[in-house]
Amino acid sequence: MSQAPDLSRRHKAAVPFIFVTVCLDIVALGLIIPVLPSLIADFVGDVSRSGYWLGLFGSMWGLMQFFASPVIGALSDRFGRRPVVLLSNFGLGADYLLMALAPGLGWLLLGRLINGITSASISTAYAYISDVTAPENRAKYFGLMGAAFGVGFVLGPLLGGVLGDIEPRLPFYVAAGLSLLNFVYGLFVLPESLSPENRKPFSFRTAHPLGAAKFLMKNADLMRLALINLTVNFAHSALPTTFVLYAALRFNWGAKEVGWTLAGVGICSAVVQALLTGRVVKAVGEKKAMLLGLTFGVIGFLGYGLAPTWQAYILFVPLMSLWGLAGPSVQALMTSKVAPQEQGTLQGANMSLMSTASIFAPIVFGAVFAVSTSSHLPLAFAGACFVLASAILCAGLLIGTTVKAVIRPGSAAPSASMH
Q1: What is the spatial distance between Cα 17 and Cα 137, in angstroms, rounded to a whole number?
Q2: The pLDDT value given to residue 388
C-alpha cells in the first residue's frame, strides 16, 4: 500500500490547484446567498411565509446530497477525484443558468435540486487532500480548505450583494460563469490525486445512504466523529436558512449590508482556518482543538441569538469564527481511521449523514423563525433559531468529550483489515 507521505511529495503542487478550485466553487455558491431569499419572497409575496419556502428549498437541497454523496464518493474511489470535480463544476454552471432564467418558484426549486447533486462533490475535494497528505498534517491542510471556503464567502456574498442591488438575477449569471471557468481551469491544470493502485471497484454496498451509515458504524470513534459533524451541520443551517430574513427584520438590513457582514464572517473564518488551525492542533492535538472550536461555536450562536443591536451582533463574529477550529480537527481524526482507497467513500458517507441535517434543519429553523417572528411576539424572540443552534451544538460538544482517537506523528492510514 502506498504511504501518504510519498503521495504528499509526489503531488505537493496539486494542493494550490484544489484550493483555487474549491474557492471558485464557494464564490459561486456565495454569490446567490444574499439574493435567493428575496427572490423566493418575490415569488411567494410574503416575507414571513417565505421562511417556510426557504426551509423547503434547503431541505430538498439536502435530500439530493443525502442520496448523491455516497454515489459520488464511491465513483471518486473508482475513477479518481479529477473527473468527479470537473463534472460537478460543469453541472453547477449549467444549473446556475437554469436558476437565472427560472420563470417561477417551481423552476427555481428544480435548480436547487440539481445544485444539491452537483455540490455533493465538495466532499471529493476533502478526499483529494487526504490522498496527498500524511495523517498528522491533515488538520493543517483541512484548515487551508476551510480558508478557501472563507475566501469564497468573502468574495461571493459581497459581490452577490452588490450585483443583487443592480439586478436580483445577475448573481446567478455570474455564478454560472465562475463555475464554467472553474471547469476549464480544472480541465487544464488539476492533476489526479488517487493513484491507480489505491482505487477500488465501485460497490453498491456503500453507494447508498444505508450502506454509507454502515461504513461509518464499523468504528465507534468514526461514528462519534460523524455525529459531531451532523450536529455541526444542523446548527450551521440556522445561518443560511434565516440570517437574511432575520437581519432584514431585526436590523432593517438589505442585500448590501448582508453581503458586507458575510464578507466579514468569511475574512475571520479564513484567518482562523489558514493561520490558527495548524498551530493550535500542533500545540494541543486534534481532540482538544475540536472541543475548543465547538465551545466557541456554542457561545457564538448564543451571542447571535441574544444580541440586542446590530453592533452587538457584529462583536460576536470574530468569536464565532473560532468555531472553525473544530471542522479540520474532526476531518483529520476521521481520515486517519480508513485506508487510502476508502477516503472517497468516507467523505461521501460523511456528507450523506450530514445531509440529513440539511434535510430537516431548514424546515426546523424556518418554522422556528416563522413562529418566533409572528406579530404577537416581541422582536427580541427573533433570535430563537440561533439559541436553538447553540443548544444543538452543545450536544456535539458532549459527544466530542467521548472521542478517544489520537493521531500519532508519522502514522499512516490503517488498512481496511484493521476495522
Answers
A1: 18
A2: 94
